[in-house]
Amino acid sequence: MVETQAEEILHGADKQDVSLLIVTYPFGATTHIDIVLRVRPSGIPLHVIHNTSIMNAIGVCGLQLYNFGQMVSLVFFTNTWKPDPFYNRIRKNMGLGLHTLVLLDIKAKEQMLLHIGCDAGSDNTQQCIVCGTLEQLSEQPPESFGEPLHSLIIVGKRLHHLEVVYAEEYAAFARVALYVTLP
Residue 132 and residue 174: Cα distance in Å, rounded? Predict the structure, then answer.
């Protein structure tokens, strides 16, 4: 919506307050930066209230933040739109032994085969962390992953032994492969 309707969102902002609620960190995407850049020249006052996000909460998974490579977004494909830049970024991270945070599309009503739930909100009773191979996770019932929003972490080879021990608590099965290989 923001990408295609920025002008509509900002229309009338010089006469009345306009708010844009973002599910994640407000400056975590170029889309949100674009809104700010459109407002600045107008002289319209802009106030940002920082939100919690997966970037704040990812540490709860027990993986060391400095072992994460570039995060990627994985969107639902359509018949005419199948972006693939995420694949090369995942391969690059894996080549470096780094973990990859995959932000999954937020079309919550769509069925996802593979996902890990990690609610970034402040109520940690709602978070759900599941660890396993892609095959193991695909065999889990959807309710095993909690409510949306969901993210997936592809674990890199550069693992500290404490990361492995911590992840065992969330294992879908007793034996977990902690990384996969992409062709």
Answer: 9
- Which pair of tokens denotes residue 72? 């990627």
Give the integer Cα–Cα distance in Å for 21 and 32. Answer: 10
Render pLDDT for 131-144 as a digit per residue (tens, 0 to 9). 877 888 888 888 88
DSSP string, 7-45: HHHHTTTTTS------SS-TTSSHHHHHHHHHHGGGT--
SS3 at position 107: coil
- Inter-residue contact 51 to 25 (CB < 8 Å): yes
Note the pLDDT of residue 96. 95
Q: Considering only CA atoms, which of 57, 51, 59 is closest in space to residue 29?
A: 51
Taking the C-alpha atoms of residue 182 and residue 177, their distance in angstroms, rounded to an integer, is 14
CA dihedral 172, 90, 58, 119 (to 10 degrees): -70
DSSP letter (8 states) at residue 154: E
Say yes or no to pLDDT of 54 above 50: yes
Tell me the pairing of strands 72-74 and 100-104.
parallel
Q: Enumerate the β-bridge partners of residue 171.
A: 131
